[in-house]
Amino acid sequence: MRTDTPQPIKLSDYKAPDFLIPATELAFDLAPETTRVKARLTIKRQGAADAPLILMGERLKLISVAIDGQPVDYTTTDETLTIASVPDQFVLETEVEIDPLNNKTLEGLYMSSGRYCTQCEAEGFRKITWYLDRPDSLSKYRVRIEAPKAGFPHLLSNGNLLEKGDLPDGKHYALWEDPFFKPCYLFALVAGELDVLEDSTVTMSGRTVDLKIYVDTGMRDRAAYAMDALKRSMKWDEEVYGREYDLDLFMIVAVRDFNFGAMENKGLNVFNASLLLADPTTATDADYERIESVIAHEYFHNWSGNRVTCRDWFQLCLKEGLTVFRDQGFSADMRGHAVARIKDVRALRARQFPEDSGPLAHSVRPSSYVKIDNFYTATIYEKGAEIVGMLKTLAGPAVYRQALDHYFEHNDGTAATLEDFLASFHAVTADNPQLRADLSAMIDWYTQAGTPQVRISQHYDAAAKTLTLTCLQVTAPTPGQPEKKPLPIPIRLAVLDEDGAPQAPFNTPDNVSWLFILRDAQAEMVIRNIEMPPVLSALRHFSAPVTLHLDEPQSHAFARFKGDSDPFNRWEAAQGLAKAIMLDEIPDEALIDAFAQGLEATLRDDRLDDAFKALILGLPTEADLAQSQSPIDPAFLHHNRKRFKAALSLRLHDTLRDLYNALPVANTFSPDAASAGNRALRNALLDLLLAGFDLSQNPGELTLLAEAHFKAATNMTDMIGGLIALTHVQGAPYQNALDAFYARFRHEPLVIDKWFSLQAAAPHPDTLARVQALSHHPDFDAKTPNRWRALVQGFANNQSVFHAPDGGGYAFLVEQILAVDAFNPMTAARLVEPLSRYRFYAQPYSENMRQALQMITAAPKLSKNVLELATKALA
Ligand code: ARG
Ligand code: ZN
């Protein structure tokens, strides 16, 4: 047993801080290895009269401590500074020295490409100075930054610039003031050489706000799309949520070295460059889409996160779940509701469902953690967003908006809890007791982990014209929660006929569907006046994050695939059928024929948009299939999926080819949704065509087609589409394209990241060897998270290669995790998850995965981050 097993922090132990810090003044004297930070904190006691002052700090070299100008006695540990007796009100002054240059945790103050930047959420501020580093400690900040003029012309922090000026010895300074109370995790500082793209906007009340996006020198043009997305986000939040921006300046900085996507620091967002910079030749449509949504996400945090923040980190979903829900609403309005919903659900199922059924399952509001960084999970973000979505579904759009207005108004300037959030729904529903009760009951979705399984069985009585539905829900136990209660599950239903057209006009707003709330473990309902044999369309628009089992013949799924007016359920029907086919031991040729016909009809349907068709063509991934197999056999899934795609390809070859040729190729690039959908469809058609390569009568023709697509590409989306198509061909055509790609983009780090991840994702027998070689490539750098993730995460997601029967894939991952854990635990810990579900796999995978986890926990020096996850996975 390890002796360094860290103690968890528990929600039930929450205690308000004994001291308030109404004012924080910081002075930075920047130097790469010896930055000096002076803090002048105005502190007031609010707790017990004898409570000591205990501040948090990490890796700080303490120079001095004084209270009201006088030296004091204090004690320190690795993580705390304690002053036993302090007055009720005083000024604390400290000075520390820190080393940004060698800070490879990328948390606190660090250097990236010769530039200073910060990342404080969740607990990075304590690497900058001694402080009450907790989100319920709100303060007003005044920040002075001093640095050499050469190399550091821009000195940025939160809020408004009060002053700047020259100093002796070639130095200069800037003084910033943020008029809003904020927790320290929203503090930011950036200093360095940067290009800036400037613009401005006028808010709903007529104020002008300056917008500035800072990027690497020479990259200004690539910030244009982010700027456009920012302006659209600001407008949308005014129109849809009534939220206006509150400072006169909004800045964003893009940095290459960043542990995750982006950060919502007040007035000074910091972005991973990969989520900000875009132009047609270097960014794919998926990149544009992601940039738009993350720009919106971080901007929306200004209200859901900054103006109203979280009391403690257990409430993380209060800001993240709500903000994801808001950014999903924005993306849906920008790009189409049906397609956006399908993509969101696809992501939820790929990332959150496995988490929720495995050893790392936790509730959306966890009750304990060791390292909060490990809880920036799909559960807290994406399932958290689904819960807000269900609240809106239950309340309806108008009441939802009233509740949100109430929430922002009544909690502005405070650190809130989920109870405060739900209290706002309570406050605006006094006239509707049933709705009020349903909304209050939603708290259980926040506290109970696990994905509910819903089963609906049906009986049609043709003589009585009634359809009787029986609904059951059950949630499997998760770690620490053996017993589960029934949750309130909103299920949107419709009854279709055998062609998928709606039956029986119901007296509901859309005349087609109605909302049923499954409150108990079981419920029955009778639907009358059903004239024709019914086909049920349940959980329309994915109205709740559950797994649905419908007891029905396969013909019903075909009916929905053919005609369901809910595009989500239409797509879902196709997914379900494709899954069933691929999970069959022996291919069912008749079923494949029927599916191919359905696919052809979909592709030829002029009423459907290209983006939707591309999603239908996507087919369930190996990881999707794994969720329906027990025990999981990755080799079987890979083989069957490949076989199915080849079968479809051969059957539909002429259709695919005709449709591919018929699609127009635009002369000029536009990132809008329709153009992106067009490219997505063209690339998906090409991929399915090439999936027939091994069985093709004419492989030479297919090779030429893929090569021509790659060579003719005038944008990154089509280039990647060509490369993926050539992945089916392998050999020289594939390698030549990769080499050409590298030669062309070798000076573009964001594109070279793609070059690494594409190779890691190829389902080829030599991929592990290739990935190992790439980990020694001169362009590989484990200290840059983007590059490391491109290779290592790309590889771990490559199901059939990562799960090599001899365990070689796992060994490579363990080696990488341990290497990175030595300097960047937060990023290393993210990759423990692919090993965590070992109990679900067949042998020899399962045992090899377990041993790999044990190699991790047996390592002599391990961060708390990695230790927490590996230990939980093995428990
Ligand atoms: N608040 C940021 C966002 O969602 C993410 C911060 C991630 N922090 C972390 N320690 N993982 O926009
Ligand atoms: Zn966020």
Provide a quick synopsis of the model.
The protein is an alpha+beta fold and 875 residues long. Helices cover 41% and strands 21% of the residues. The protein has an 8-stranded mixed sheet with strand order 6-5-9-3-2-12-15-14, with no helix packed on it. A 5-stranded mixed sheet has the order 17-18-19-21-20, covered by helices on one side. Strands 10-11-16-13 form a 4-stranded antiparallel sheet, with no helix packed on it.
Low-pLDDT runs: none
User: Structural class of the helix and strand makeup?
Assistant: alpha+beta
Based on the coordinates given, report the CATH architecture of the domain at 9-193: Sandwich
| Proportion of residues in β-strands | 15-25%
Individual helix count? 28
Unique bound compounds: arginine, zinc ion
State the strand order across the main sheet: 6-5-9-3-2-12-15-14
The CATH C-level name of the domain at 9-193 is: Mainly Beta
Write down the overall mean pLDDT.
97
Largest sheet: 8 strands, mixed
Rg, alpha carbons? 28 Å
Number of strands: 31
Helix content: 40-55%
The termini sit apart by: 13 Å
CATH homologous superfamily classification of the domain at 9-193: tricorn interacting facor f3 domain
The general outline is globular
CATH topology type of the domain at 9-193: Immunoglobulin-like
